[in-house]
Amino acid sequence: MNIHRGRRLRGDAFVRSLARETRMSPDTLIWPLFVADGENLVEPIPSLDGQFHYSPDRLGEAVDAGLAAGVDKFLLFGLPAHKDEVGSGAYDDEGVVQRGIRAVREKYGRSVYIVTDICMCEYTSHGHCGILCGQDVDNDATLPYLDRIAVSHARAGADMVAPSDMMDGRVASIRRALDDAGFLKLPIMSYAVKYASAFYGPFRDAAGSAPAFGDRKSYQMDFHNVREALNEAAADEDEGADILMVKPALAYGDVIRAVREETDLPLAAYSVSGEYAMIRTAGRAGLIDEHRVMCESAVAAYRAGADILITYYAKELAAAMKNGEIG
Ligand code: PBG
């Protein structure tokens, strides 16, 4: 009879850490950062308490804070000075993300890892993730623009690109463009499974990227579906993605698990702005313990099968992993 096995395995901190099933470390964390046009600017983001807009010249302050906590991987989003129909600020070699990458490279060399988001919604006047044809996003007309953005980021010194636009065929298209430009070793982390989610609300305020009309349901996924996720993941894998991503994370543990069981590629989960904002504001209101709910939610993503976590709590989670609270 083993009726007490559970209690023996939970008896003290030593045996609990010995028997832990989910392991994680700070080197699997990526911290999203917002690079805004301008100079000498670090401004709090109202929709994301605790996160900031950084001008390229001061982006290093976020990198310093990350490194001090044990986070050395960053995902950059851009807020350009000007927007237009085709999002030309996104592939401008003097664009805000390109300048941010160069500033970080100059200061830190190869000691930090820079991932860049490839999308157009922060750069288009209409806020959609691609080129419009009437009221619709034209999938195929968008691809060459995504290619140009990716190559421009690579030239500026990005280590990895992460297309989040959800156009079909973009991974193959970007891969070819990067290879043609000589970036054969630069990996693609594809937002393979990205749902049309209300959890992105605070991000759209932070990045000024809410669509001017309509929604993103024609290119982002319906949250009723999980088989569709497997199709999207398989397509991106075939097209040459190196890492797959599921987004959001918190309400999508089943999807992370399903994709994990289907692919042998590394899998990232993106704990998005709305997840952060919920935990943050409920914590600040004294309704939940922010730190503990943050830890529990992060562990859930890894337990579901994620190898990598993209999170606005990267610094705080790294600290919790280092002191053994989780991980
Ligand atoms: C760009 C993009 C979005 C997010 C990441 N890349 C917004 C969207 O699709 O509307 C959301 C990230 C977050 O909510 O933290 N397409």
Tally of DSSP helical segments: 12
Q: In total, how many domains does the architecture comprise?
A: 1
Q: In terms of per-residue confidence, which ranges show pLDDT below 50 for 5 or more consecutive residues?
A: none
Rough shape?
A: globular
Q: Output mean pLDDT.
A: 97
CATH homology-level superfamily: Aldolase class I
Order of secondary-structure elements: HHEEEHEHEEEHEHEHHEHEHHEH
Number of strands: 12
Bound molecules: ligand PBG
- Structural class by helix and strand composition: alpha/beta
Q: In percent, how helical is the residue content?
A: 25-40%
Characterise this structure:
The protein is an alpha/beta fold and 327 residues long. It has a single domain, classed as TIM Barrel (Alpha-Beta Barrel). The protein has 12 helices and 12 strands. The strands form 2 sheets. Strands 1, 2, 3, 4, 5, 8, 9, 10, 11 and 12 form a 10-stranded mixed β-sheet that branches. A hairpin with a 2-residue loop joins strand 6 (132-133) and strand 7 (136-137). Ligand PBG binds at residues 117, 119, 121, 129, 164, 200, 203-204, 209, 216, 272-273. The site of ligand PBG has 12 residues, from helix 7.
